[in-house]
Amino acid sequence: MNLIENIREGLRSIAGNRLRTILTSLIIAIGITSLVGILTAIDGIQNSVTSSFAGLGANTFSLVARQDAFRRGGRTQRQDKPIDYFDAVQFKRRFPYNATIALSAAVTGSAQAKYGSKKTNPNVLLIGGDDAYLSVKGYTVQSGRNLAQNDLTYALNVAVIGSEVASTLFERKIDPLNQLIRVSGNQYKVVGVLAKKGGLTGGGDDRIILIPLDNARALAGSQQLTFDITASVPTVSDQDEAVGEARGTMRLVRRDPLGQPDSFEIQRADNLAEKTATITGYLRMGGFGIGFITLLGASIALLNIMLVSVTERTREIGIRKSLGATPKRIREQFLIEAIVICLLGGLGGVLLGLGVGNLIASIISQGTGGFVVPWAWMGLGLVVCITVGLFAGIYPAVRASKLDPIEALRYE
């Protein structure tokens, strides 16, 4: 009996026990679904997080003053002196690297905008910025225009508003452009509306009103503003060099003593992305562990079913041996049956895992991650299926091949 005939015999045996085959395949399918589903969900969530960071730009970094006390070398350090307007302007003038520099200051995070009888909740972020702020921060102007140089030079009362502010005040019934809104006691003409950005903070980036930087300074009055400096370099590969230049330039501007720590902090946009990737890596390890435990249980169940199959087919094995089947061919038949059953369950599990994983990722990321097809995890799932089939089928196969044909023919 050759290998091809052995394969056919194994498939006929599987087809003759359809209910047992289906139930056994379902056990494997559940294990593969848990493995592929968890890993697919993690990949989908990672893609959503990556796209959220892409909105900020992986090639940007910010210079900010730390406002909380921190520990360095076992000692508690005082908070940094705020970055004032002079520091920000001097840095922009003296920074030698080819980069786009945006200056901004948060006037308040609890502003309330009004238009006629309509008003927003007091959770609007009122920002003073320049004409580079929107592009560096990853915003897109949906209608109207960005702040112009004339607006900045003369500190005009104009504003660019976020999508959530626009929908709350104008309810998509009135064109927001050139309408007058009131914010923090001042009246501003809307010159631009931003496209919806969303983000990891629950849509807070859409509750923004951008006004000219000098206008914000005048609005703050005696309130001391802390300015943020955000730089965007041409490519990600330039970032390390640009950050080094920025650190040296800012130390000169702030007159930090030689040998003393920086009186500011540089926050790189890709740092948080790297930390998130590390966390998802641990999640993948945990997901693989959960899936492996589930598959281990499935393989034990398959082992038990194959042992029962050997006992039920003892007389059949005796007949085949008496007709010249060698122990090797007997082993092959049972191994083929176990592997085919695992592959049937594996294919179903991969498809279920693909759907379940993307569904979970879509719910968590609110549909921003897109559909993920993890070919690597799907291939791993099928490889694991074959491994499980070998693991669960080899002992029953060896046991069947060692049966004495005379004793097997007597079995009833």
Automatic annotation (TrEMBL):
Any one of the GO CC terms: plasma membrane
Chief site of localization: membrane
Protein species of origin: Spirosoma validum
InterPro entries: ABC3_permease_C (IPR003838), MacB_PCD (IPR025857), Macrolide_Exporter_MacB (IPR050250)
Residue stretches spanning the membrane: 21-42, 288-311, 338-364, 376-398
Residue span, MacB-like periplasmic core domain: 21-246
UniProt protein name: ABC transporter permease
Lineage per the UniProt record: Bacteria, Pseudomonadati, Bacteroidota, Cytophagia, Cytophagales
Keyword set, alphabetical order: Cell membrane, Membrane, Transmembrane, Transmembrane helix
